[in-house]
Riboflavin biosynthesis protein RibD (Thioclava indica), 358 residues
Amino acid sequence: MRLALGLAARGLGNVWPNPAVGCVIVKDGRIVGRGWTQPGGRPHAEIRALAQAGAAAQGATVYVTLEPCAHHGKTPPCAEALVAANVARVVTALEDPDPRVKGAGHAKLRAAGIAVSEGVLEGQARAAQAGFLTRITKARPWIALKLATSFDGRIATASGESQWITSPQARAHVHALRAQFDAVMVGGGTARADDPLLTVRHFHPKRAPVRVVASKALDLPRKVLAGSVDQAPLWVLHGPDAPVEARGFWCGVGAELIEVPVDKQNLDLKSAMEALGARGLTRVFCEGGGAFGAALLRQGVVDELIGYTAGLALGSEGRAGLGALGLDRLGDAPRFDLVESRAIGGDLYHRWLRHTQA
C-alpha cells in the first residue's frame, strides 16, 4: 500500500476532477502490475495496473489507495474490471465518499466472491486525498495559503521592495509545489501590484495549473496575465457589478469569467471557493496577497498554511504578510498544527494543517 500511495502522488495536480489514485497488483510475492491515475483523470489507476499485469492478474492481490469506482461515467467501473480479471483479493485504504460509489465498489467486489480488506494505511491515504475528499464533502477545493516572509512576518519593505526575500532554492521549491496543485490563486491586489505570470517554472508539469485571480471589479493589469492564456488557463472570479467592457476584454483574451456574490462590498469567498469546486478543482495553492489571504482565513476556508521564512528582519514599517483579521481575542485566532519543517536554501520551510478538536 505504501508503494501504491507513492504512485498516487504522481497524479497530484494532473488528474482533477478525479482523485489521484495508485494501484499495485501482487502475485506470488511479485509485483506484476502498477498504475496511477493519468493526466486528465483517465485511465484510472486500476485499469493501468491490470493492463500491465495481463493474465497474471488472475488470483492476484490488488492494493489500491481508494475504493474502486462502481458507476458508469466516461469509463466503465474499475470494480467491474477487477471482477472480470478474476483477482482474488482487493485491499483498499479508503472508502470513496462520492455518492455514486460510497461502498458500492466494495460491495460489487464482495458479491463476485473477491475478498476485500479496507482501511489499510487509511490515515496516510486520507492526507494524500485531502483535496478530493474536501471537494466531495465540503463542495470546495482544499486551500493551501503560502506566505514567504522575513523573520518578523513581512513580505516587503515599506517602499514595496520584495524581490527577493527568500533564496533561489526556496523559490524553486514553490514552483515544485505549484506543479502538485490544480490551480494557483492570487487576489486582485497582488495581480494589480505584480501582474504575475503564475505559471510553473523550472519544472514541466503534464497539466499546467489553472491560474485563478479574484477581482471584484475586474480591474486587472492587461499585459502579462492577459497575454499568457495560451500558456495556462486563466479563471477570474468577479462580482456581479463588474463592468461590461472589462468582461468583454477578459473573455476576448480567452479567460474564463466566474461571477460570484458579494458579501459586505467584497467577494463572498466561501461562494467563490464553492464555484471552483463545482468546476472540478480539488487543490488550490494561494499565493496571496496579504489582504486576500486574511479574507480567506476569516472565511474559514484555509486548510493548510505553507511558510517560507527568511533570516532577515524588515521592521514594523515593512508590509505585513497578512491583512487585518479583526480579532479581539486570542481564542478567536485560526489555529494550525505544525506537520513539517526543514531548511531549504538557508530559509525555513514549514507546513501547518488546520487544527481540529480531538
Notes: Residues 140-354 form a domain with the Dihydrofolate Reductase, subunit A fold (CATH 3.40.430.10). The chain has a mean pLDDT of 94.
